[in-house]
Amino acid sequence: MQVIKRIRRKLAGFINSVKENDGYYIARYEASGKAEQSVKSKRGQEVWTEIKQPDAETSCQGIYGTAVNSALMNSYAFDTAILFLQKQSSQYAIRQSANDAEDGLLLAGESGDVQCNIYDLASNCYEWTTEIFDPFNGADSCVVRGDAYNDTNNLCASSRKNEGNTTNNTSISFRPILYL
């Protein structure tokens, strides 16, 4: 229960900041920087995969020191981003993945999935979030969002899927958010 309380407290702090400061920033690309163990978000870089959810969450903390908060994407941030993107293009949230298994894992920003200068949200890799799949059964099953290159179900940006938080494979990455 302590983990769930911590997650709720962090989420409440994020939501309050978003309301007080009129928004947040979502990384333009999936995380890169695995070799340096330093989170980056750059086009054309190898996507940071094979990372467990707790490690992705830790990697996102303190990216810019204490002046700006940084964290692993939470589902509130993911959902509000999807709603914003949907206003720009009504087909976005129901759009099929731009990448498929034949393409394999692509470099960040190369899947063809771009909306409002945000890349690969609906394709290339699932993305870890801080959302717990079943909070009544513990915090070891977390939610990934989006779609992955090797999933033939053709999910979309708004999809949710549960994964054990110790899963680390080439179809799961992550994306940081920044807020004041």
CATH topology: paralog of FGE (formylglycine-generating enzyme)
Mean of the pLDDT scores? Answer: 87
Strand content: 15-25%
How many helices does DSSP assign?
Answer: 3
Question: Can you walk me through this structure?
Answer:
This protein is of the alpha+beta class and 180 residues long. It has one domain: paralog of FGE (formylglycine-generating enzyme) (Alpha-Beta Complex), CATH 3.90.1580. The protein has 3 helices and 9 strands, in the order H-E-H-E-H-E-E-E-E-E-E-E. It has a 4-stranded mixed β-sheet with strand order 7-6-5-8. The chain has a 3-stranded antiparallel β-sheet with strand order 1-9-2. It has a two-stranded antiparallel sheet with strand order 3-4. The chain is globular. 39% of the residues are buried.
What's the short version?
The protein is an alpha+beta fold and 180 residues long. It is 23% helix and 18% strand.
Question: What is the element layout, followed by pairings?
Answer:
Blueprint: H1 2-21, E1 25-26, H2 53-60, E2 69-72, H3 75-88, E3 114-115, E4 118-119, E5 126-132, E6 141-145, E7 160-164, E8 172-173, E9 176-179
Parallel strand pairs: 5-8
Antiparallel strand pairs: 1-9, 2-9, 3-4, 5-6, 6-7
Task: Please describe the structure with a list of short key phrases separated by commas or semicolons.
180 residues, alpha+beta, paralog of FGE (formylglycine-generating enzyme), three-stranded antiparallel beta sheet, 9 strands, 18% strand
